[in-house]
Amino acid sequence: MAMVEPNVAALLWFALFAGVASTGFYVLTGMFPLETRPDLRRRPLGLALIAANVLLLLALIGGSLAYGAANLRWTSLVIVGGFAVLFAPGLFNVWPQRWRDGLAGLTIVLGGLGVSLGLLQHVGALF
């Protein structure tokens, strides 16, 4: 494995961050366009959760890419990122419908993104 990627620990961390970011992306894409989601558009909490999730998702994507670029070979970065994007719909479909749609899904994704950003800061000290 050292010939393929010498930093296996960083590879596993990047895979976790990429998986959370990809799954969060799929949950958030279901919230747009807002005209199709009157249950979220009428609630200020729903709009605040969407905005917070989008900001955390952008921070996680940027931080994960910076962490991966600093610690991994670019081939590992591309392959693991591709696997995360490829298998994220499977992770998304495993969730029960009530967890991935609406306020519950946004709250779960917010928690996942927040924990992932905390771990990224702990592991990579990027922010």
**Proportion in β-strands:** under 5%
Q: What is the average per-residue confidence, as pLDDT, rounded to a whole number?
A: 88
Number of helices: 6
Separation of the first and last Cα atoms: 30 Å
**Total count of strands:** 0
Compressed to H and E, one letter per element, the order equals HHHHHH
Structural class: mainly alpha
What does this structure look like?
The chain has one domain. The protein starts with 7 loop residues before the first helix and ends with a helix. 80% of the residues lie in helices and 0% in strands. The model has no long low-confidence stretch (mean pLDDT 88). The protein is built from six helices and no strands. By secondary structure, the chain is mainly alpha-helical. Helix 1 (8-29) packs antiparallel against helix 3 (44-71), helix 1 runs antiparallel to helix 6 (103-124) and helix 3 packs parallel to helix 6. The protein has helices at 8-29, 38-41, 44-71, 74-94, 97-100, 103-124. It comes from Methylobacterium soli. Keywords: Membrane, Transmembrane, Transmembrane helix.
